[in-house]
Write a structure and sequence with these properties.
single chain, 20 strands, Glucose Permease (Domain IIA), mainly beta
């Protein structure tokens, strides 16, 4: 493929019957509907300046165009698995059994908080036979989680939930002999019929979380961290994760909007612009598939490094 592809917007060239116009390397993304920048625009020294007027004098790559960049291998950028947060504090009282008990039960005392394992949209919230009450969430990677037997629900249909947001309190509604959370998981939100469920233990494992777990950032048995505490960043827009701190580096994965990821360090790299903000900080993420890569910090909530304080020891800082 072409290691230095360019989007076409400038001078015209005639190739056979095809007329194209090419500009410097640009990586492009959709602006998330309803999103707001993570910091006050007045704090951005480059707001309103042209690329040539930035304080560093380096080329600025704009992330605001309308289509998605592909990897250097030509594969389209894809939504990646989100990093799962702990759904509730409880012991596994019943495991997964395909066709019979398509989920797991986490038992604890009444009113134990229940949390969304990842970002998504609530598709169901209310009374239902068997569970007494349930909540279903369609996640940004296309999967679905189901929560049942709660005593109280804190979200409604259509609500956008964030990773680790409290959605309910544990109860024993429906066919339950004790307070518990019935957690069901589906690889695809469009296939949620009998026989389509997957074992929640495996669903969460590939997303970096081992059960049983403790909400709030305590270490899990796999050696990863359940998200929500120190050492994590939250995206406010989707973006490509690269092998180093520049847009022309190899594509690693695509980070979803409003997701939480472990972060180890940051580096100074290529200047990028998104949503009116220009920044040369790139944050190194740990991904659910055990890979690592850098994402532009302009796509992260918080300050110019997304709250990450450690500098990467082997950062590639020259462009």
């Amino acid at each position: 493929m072409f290691p230095n592809r360019r989007l076409c917007t400038g001078a015209l060239f005639l190739v056979g019957a095809l007329v194209v116009a090419c500009s410097p390397d640009v990586i492009v993304h959709h602006t998330p509907a309803g999103s707001t920048p993570p910091t006050d625009p007045a704090s951005n020294p480059n707001e309103g300046k042209s690329d040539e007027e930035t304080d560093t004098g380096e080329e600025v790559v704009d992330l605001k165009q309308a289509s998605l960049e592909t990897s250097d291998a030509g594969a389209p950028a894809q939504s990646m698995l989100f990093v799962a947060l702990c759904p509730s504090d409880g012991k596994i009282s019943q495991g997964f059994n395909a066709g019979a008990h398509e989920g797991i039960d986490l038992a604890n005392v009444r009113d134990t908080p229940i949390f969304a394992v990842g970002a998504g949209v609530v598709t169901d919230s209310g009374p239902v036979q068997g569970y007494g009450q349930w909540i279903r969430i369609k996640h940004d990677d296309g999967s679905m989680t189901v929560y049942g037997h709660m005593h109280r629900r804190d979200v409604a249909v259509g609500d956008r939930v964030t990773p680790g947001q409290r959605i309910a309190l544990m109860g024993s509604e429906g066919e339950a002999s004790e307070p518990k959370l019935h957690l069901g998981t589906y690889k695809s939100a469009s296939n949620v019929n009998l026989g389509d469920a997957m074992d929640p233990v495996e669903y969460l494992k590939v997303r970096g979380l081992a059960l049983p777990c403790k909400p709030g950032g305590e270490p899990t048995k796999t050696g990863t961290t359940s998200m929500g505490g120190a050492g994590t960043v939250t995206t406010w827009a989707a973006g490509d994760v690269r092998s180093c701190e520049r847009t022309r580096c190899a594509f690693v994965a695509r980070a979803g909007a409003y997701n939480v990821y472990p972060a180890s360090c940051y580096a100074v790299g290529q200047l990028v612009t998104y949503g009116g903000y220009t920044n040369d900080k790139w944050v190194k993420l740990k991904l659910p598939n055990t890979q690592e890569g850098f994402i532009p910090a302009v796509l992260l909530q918080g300050d110019e490094t997304g709250g990450v304080k450690t500098v990467c020891p082997s950062a590639v800082n020259s462009l």
